[in-house]
Amino acid sequence: MRFRRTSPHAWELDDMHPLFAGLLAELPEVAAAHDRASGRLYPDPVGKDGPSEMRADWGEHVRPELECLFASNREIVARDLAPLADGDCSGRLIIPADHLDAWLNVLNQARLITVEANGLDEADLDNREFPDLATHRGMALLRTHFYAHLQELMVEAVS
Fold first, then answer.
1. Where are the domains of the chain?
2. Which of 100, 81, 106, 85 is nearest to 158 (CA)?
3. Axis crossing angle, helix 63-80 with helix 100-117, rounded to the nearest 10
């Protein structure tokens, strides 16, 4: 799989294996499962012993804005992924350059949600052995590493 700039306004992911194209196609759905990682996506800004007014303000003003931003980013990514969802098996995906921030956000949401929902810890994430893809946990590890790798490619590409 390669990630490269094809024009000043677009990036391309190509030479994707069908397994990775499938993981990519499910990205917006995985990222939408916020109930599984609410504490990671919307952390308490002041801790348990902090002022309750500040926590209430955060819950009333900041969290709804974050939820809107996250949902908007998932919509952008879902539109970009439409060719994969429609069964395009070319292993190629065009991403508009002005959508990269949304992609980074959604990849991060999905990665955090996958880690939390599957109880993965640092030992799991640091393990360099290829995961057992016959298990749900192995697929969760693969998904997490794949999303992190895409984030890394995108950050390096725009740096």
1. 2-158
2. 100
3. 110
Q: Which two tokens stand for residue 52?
A: 């309750």
DSSP state string for 84-145: HHTT--SS-EEEEGGGHHHHHHHHHHHHHHHHHHTT--HHHHH--SPP-TTSHHHHHHHHHH
Residue 9 carries which DSSP code? T
Query: What pTM was estimated for this model as a whole?
Result: 0.88
Tell me the CA distances in angstroms from 106 to 33, 53, 100, 135, 139, one per residue in order. Answer: 11, 30, 10, 25, 19
What is the enclosing helix (H) or strand (E) of 158? helix 136-158
Over residues 97-101, the mean pLDDT reads 95
Contact 42, 63 (CB under 8 A): yes
Name the residue among 158, 59, 71 with its Cα closest to residue 109: 71
Q: Is the pLDDT of residue 88 over 70?
A: no
Judge whether 95 and 16 are in contact, CB under 8 Å. no
Strands 10-14 and 2-7: antiparallel
